[in-house]
Amino acid sequence: MPESERIVIDSAPLISLVAALGDLEVLNFLYSQVLVPFEVCKEILAGGSSGFAVAEFEAASWLKKRSSPLEITPTLLNSLDRGEAAVIQLAINEGIQTVCIDETVGRRVAKLSGLSLTGSIGILLRAKREGHPVLMQQAIERMRNQGIRLSEKVVKFALEQADENR
Prior knowledge:
Shape: globular
Number of helices: 10
Largest sheet: 5 strands, parallel
Strand content: 5-15%
Structural class: alpha/beta
Number of strands: 5
Helix content: 40-55%
Number of domains: 1
Distance between the termini: 31 Å
Radius of gyration: 15 Å
Order of helices and strands: EHHEHHEHHEHEHHH
């Protein structure tokens, strides 16, 4: 039962959601359209040393994966990595209000660009509120086991919001 809402997503949240839940279906549950810039597709498909999340990303055929690079403004390229810059640029180009970025600097630039923000924890919390079976404590543990860094402040907030205080 997705809202008629579109979102543009960065690579870190995609990897974090696979770590937390084992796939990306939660995005399909929450959003009518999930756009992935070409630059983010390249980052995911590069797969790092382990290739983590590549198979799940490829299996999510409903993701709107862009097949050509964006022309990104120099201001964004000078402030951010290509993936985050592409997420913000694509959202602006397409008139999409919400982006999903986890990194602090990317979040700050997105806010300054007038965009609404969420991150991997925000996605998990919303999914839980809307009836998707999310166990926040377990999701956080699985993310950390994959080397995803979450501050104690973020973990505490997530567990409180999910009503799963330790």
